[in-house]
Write a structure and sequence with these properties.
By secondary structure, the protein is α/β, with parallel strands linked by helices. The chain has helices at residues 15-25, 56-61, 75-86, 97-102, 107-113, 138-144, 150-155, 167-190, 200-212, 228-231, 252-262, 271-278, 283-293, 299-308, 326-331, 372-378, and strands at 6-10, 29-34, 65-69, 90-93, 118-123, 194-199, 238-239, 244-247, 313-315, 334-339, 343-348. It has 16 helices and eleven strands. The chain is globular.
């Protein structure tokens, strides 16, 4: 899909590498510029056996890329990067603005090398605000966007807490990939490059506040921020006789059907339910009733019954068991491959399918500077 597109990737950790990994999956040539010796921090996320620079997360987030190690404070290595930019469609970095300018690779410096370059700067915060020069990591962004206040609203434990995922990094990476694709379309139509800013804070705020700004969206607000359905403490996986199950009675029709299957249809005719429904608080009664009835059967028995009656439901699977999910097994989502340096590993396949581009083998994650000599030869060095 993106064959012939060259991206020079000077990003680190997860945000930028995740964005360029998705583009590499689509066929773009991504040249990863790394620190000599140690390489990108993302190489050390997850155990690398026997090589600590080939960690398990690196196998995913940097797959399909080529690696060259450059010390940009050294004139010869800086000259190599300038040569690479001259051949590139996209230059993507997440170095803070003042530091990249000192190295000579700000937008004006790169545009002088290649006038139509798409110059993408992954920042922590928008560069026209008071946070512009602050460092940003996933935890910082979760805290700054109010995300750490969500779990306390659900369970009553007032301590702010992080969602246990690098969710801000990955969402910013999604925005970064989208931004690059949009800029490439613009360039194909007009021949123009441009400078693109992708700030984590604003990207993650856009993602989280889509539902959670809620009634505070209006001016004056007609209610507090926070989407009540997501923050309902009774809306949790329900216990069965041998595990837990997620059940979603989303519409009035499916709710009535579910209550009938549980033998609880009378609940919907009680004054208590009607009163709660008038206050938009009736789902707490529904969820509590579900939790009271589901221990009577096994998870498998409930799933069979709900599938036959068009009730959305799925077993609450443990993370450790996800590789054995029967749907993923049937679709080949986790493909077992042999990395030439690491050995066997499970590779997630790109989730989006395109009829114009049949599945292809994805490239392996590279060693630090694993392609450096070849890239230099291609540049005539």
């Amino acid at each position: 899909m993106l064959s012939g597109i060259r991206i020079i990737d000077l990003t680190t950790v997860i945000f930028g590498p995740y964005a360029t990994q998705m583009l590499a999956d689509l066929g773009a040539e991504v040249i990863k510029v790394e620190t000599p010796g140690t390489g990108d921090v993302s190489r050390y996320l997850g155990n690398g056996v026997p090589d600590p620079t080939m960690g398990s997360i690196h196998l995913t987030v940097n797959r399909g890329k080529r690696s060259i190690a450059l010390d940009l404070k050294q004139p010869d290595d800086a000259a190599v990067l300038r040569d690479l930019i001259a051949t590139a469609d996209v230059f993507f970095h997440n170095v803070r603005g003042k530091a990249i300018a000192r190295l000579g690779f700000d937008y004006d410096g790169c545009r002088a090398i290649r006038p139509d370059i798409i110059y993408v700067h992954g920042t922590g915060f928008g560069q026209d605000g008071p946070y512009a020069d602050l460092q940003a990591y996933d935890d910082v962004i979760q805290a700054a966007t109010g995300t750490t206040s969500l779990l306390p609203r659900v369970d009553g434990d007032l301590r702010p807490r992080y969602l246990p995922s690098l969710i801000a990094d990955k969402i910013a990476g999604q925005f970064g990939a989208q931004a690059i694709l949009a800029a490439l379309v613009h360039k194909l139509r007009t021949g123009e490059g441009q400078e693109v800013e992708v700030p984590m804070f604003e990207c993650f705020a856009s993602f989280m506040l889509t539902e959670h700004l809620r009634d505070a969206t209006l001016d004056p607000p007609i209610g507090p921020a926070g989407y009540p359905r997501q923050l309902d403490p009774t809306r949790q996986p329900f216990p069965t006789s041998d595990g837990y199950i997620a059940i979603v009675p989303y519409t009035p029709e499916s709710t009535a059907r579910l209550m009938a299957l549980l033998g609880s249809a009378d609940l919907l005719d009680t004054p208590e339910y009607e009163d709660a429904k008038a206050k938009a608080k009736h789902m707490q009664l529904i969820y509590s009733e579900i939790a009271r009835k589901t221990p009577a059967r096994t998870t498998a028995e409930w799933l069979e019954l709900f599938a036959a009656n068009d009730i959305p439901a799925m077993a609450a699977r443990d993370l450790q068991d996800i590789l054995e999910d029967p749907h993923f097994v049937a679709t080949g989502y986790f493909r077992h491959r042999i990395h030439p340096d690491v050995g066997g590993f499970h590779e997630m396949q790109p989730p989006v399918r395109y009829s114009a581009a049949p599945p292809r083998d994805l490239g392996f994650a590279p060693r630090v500077d694993g392609d450096g000599a070849a890239i230099r030869r291609e540049l005539g060095r």
